[in-house]
Amino acid sequence: MASPGFFLIAGLGNPGSQYQRTRHNVGFLFIDYLADGHGWRVDSEKMQGLFCRGGIHGAQVLLVKPQTYMNRSGVCVRAFVDYFKIPLEHVLIMHDDIDLQPGRIKMVRQGGAGGHNGIRSIIGHLGTDVFARMKIGVGRPSIDHAGQGQPVDRYVLANMSAEEVHLFHQRASLMEEAVALFITRGIDVSMNLINGRCN
Asked: Pick from 157, 142, 131: which is nearest to 25 by CA?
């Protein structure tokens, strides 16, 4: 059972309407989905982030969307952790992952950045890679017959297809369940009960 106190649930993305539906912004999209389910709006401004605060399963939870652009996400996350004195075991970061197919999610306890600039920034600012993540699959760009494909940086900054958006909404309830398990029972239980269910 997770201990009492604040939880920080941060979704990663880039601010601005031009990025709203891009693959790199699925963290933002899920934070908004989670807030909408509770009748909240993520529109308060603090420490270079948009956030809202409320109760989920008896815990005080901060839902945060850093507004620092992806590669400086750690600035905002560290500021919230310090200001609200949030233990690192109560931090969950949601972000896109190109190594998971669209529709897959994976909860992890810790680990390196895996080429993700937002996670790299958070590791750098927290001084540790021991914090939970929800990896949200966006897949890799397709390869043509000549072995050529869209560069990864352009792929993640491109808008999701209608099919990908539909799949995201199909999986949103499972992501919500993963958050509830993380808050009430901790990352290990969330990993054990969630990972593998989107295969």
From this structure: 157
